[in-house]
Design goal:
The chain is mostly helical and 262 residues long. Helices cover 71% and strands 0% of the residues. The chain has eight helices and no strands. Helix 2 packs antiparallel against helix 3. The longest helix has 64 residues. The chain is globular and about 55 Å long.
């Protein structure tokens, strides 16, 4: 029976598919680490208290990238280039999600509006990351090779999501509520389309590596399109709601290390 668990188990068991999966994940996490690091350095003076949390977010993302690279190294594998059509973070930027890299490369302070935009975009993408890692944690938290990594990254992604909720609510109370809701909606609708396209591209590459039949590939593609249809019809709304999280000040301390994966 085709299921999320059996599908990922198949990817995990093959060196080439596992290497592609980890390479894509490591690249995205490392990119996120750079972006958050730059944002932390450019936070406007009026929001300097937020800078350590943004920096912590970036440190976590960097750590996740190192973990995925360490998982490959543990199996004697080297990273492979990420296919253009499977580069989630690059395609998000192309669709206007997140602050432009050209802006982040300049040494000019960001505006409060930029920070609100960054947090709203992160709220949407961290929802996706949290859900994906929760799925992996559900099925593979006890796995001897990836179990510890899955649990650590899942915990971090939940913290990132909680942080976005709390900070966006703070800005909403300060009068940015309508702007936040507009940006959240625009970002969510763009993200679900990017996620669909990237999912189709990744499954296409995995199918060729693993020798999937046309029937199996067709079923998986149909499933991806079905998820998109659900999200387009209303599932995207889960990405735009805001509520005070149970984890308060989730990024208020130092980042945990990944020394056990080095």
């Amino acid at each position: 029976m085709l299921s999320a668990k059996s599908l990922f188990q198949e990817i995990l068991d093959n060196d080439d598919s596992f290497r592609l999966f980890c390479s894509i994940a490591a690249s995205g996490e490392s990119q996120g680490g750079w972006e958050n690091g730059r944002i932390a350095a450019l936070v406007p003076e009026s929001e300097r208290a937020l800078a350590p949390k943004v920096a912590r977010h970036g440190a976590d993302e960097d750590k996740h990238g190192r973990i995925f690279n360490a998982l490959m190294k543990k199996r004697g594998l080297e990273p492979v280039p990420v296919p253009h059509e499977a580069d989630y973070t690059m395609l998000l930027e192309k669709h206007g999600i997140g602050l432009a890299h050209e802006q982040l490369k300049r040494d000019e302070p960001l505006s409060v509006r930029d920070i609100v935009t960054y947090l709203a975009h992160s709220r949407v993408t961290e929802q996706r990351a949290s859900e994906q890692m929760e799925l992996l944690r559900k099925h593979f938290s006890g796995h001897p090779d990836i179990g510890r990594a899955v649990k650590m990254i899942s915990h971090d992604e939940d913290n990132h999501l909680a942080y976005c909720h709390e900070e966006l609510l703070r800005f909403a109370y300060a009068g940015h509520g309508r702007t936040i809701q507009r940006i959240l909606r625009e970002c969510a609708l763009a993200e679900i389309a990017v996620y669909r396209d990237v999912s189709l591209a990744v499954m296409d590459h995995m199918g060729r590596i693993l020798g999937w039949s046309k029937a199996k590939a067709g079923v998986l593609a149909a499933g991806i399109h079905a998820v998109y249809a659900y999200e387009r019809l209303g599932g995207w709304r889960r990405m735009v709601s805001l509520e005070m999280p149970r984890r308060r000040d989730a990024l208020g301390g130092p980042a945990t290390t990944s020394v056990e994966f080095a």
